[in-house]
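To whoever is on call:

I kicked off a structure prediction for a single chain this morning and the downstream step that reads the tokens threw a length-mismatch warning. I double-checked the sequence; it's 258 residues and nothing unusual in it as far as I can see. Pasting both halves so you can look.
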Amino acid sequence: MPTERTSSGDPARTLQLLWRDSSSDRRRGPRRGLSIDAVVEAATAIADAEGLDAVTMRRVAKELGVVPMTLYTYVPSKAELLDLMLDAAYARMPRTGTAGQPWRQRVTAVAEENKALYERHPWAAAVSTARPPLGPGQMSKYEHELSGLDGLGLSDVEMDDCLTHLLTFVQACARADARATQHDSALDDQQWWELNAPLLARVLDENAYPTAVRVGAAAGAAHGSAYDPAHAYHFGLQRVLDSFAALIGRSGDAKTST
């Protein structure tokens, strides 16, 4: 799956657009009939329906009923448009109220919110945010998500590390789900395994691969396929939370000893 990345456009112009800062916009001309929000909504609708590759300035202009040159008076290029799309998606994310709940529930809520984001906007899972779009949606999301890790004895750097690890895990699961969906087949998993079972029985030597055959058979019987996205997500999330618990425990021990 090709990966786009945020913050690849003009930094000053991108921030101006993200925060809707018109103070440095000195363009003159007739009153414009569109808005940045309308452009972002049109581009997002295309991406949701057809994927991010379908989003071009020409295609968005067509959906809005304007010529491409008109669109460039609102957004300079697809690079800035991608930042606007993702930041708008962040701004619309539900913020679960978890104040007073145990930290595992708070962090789980953060994971579930991001999982829902990728289910609503599958294209977002393919976007690298190593340089995040520093708009109001991103900052509101970051502030909300950090609250799930605050007050646990973690340093500020550890809080950011834990959040980054959690979000990377959720995004990786979403990418795996998207790849599985792309490899569409007329056969479901059970039918595929039933069709190939006789061939596998002939070519797989249980004596040569005893552990692989035993474990693979057990996992397949348990999940109904070689890969169960829901199981992979829930199993992995618990391991992520366990690792956080170990770090939080060490932080508490360090504070006690001092």
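Update from on-call: the warning came from a stale cache, not from the record. Cleared it. Sanity check on the structure: The two ends are 49 Å apart (CA to CA).
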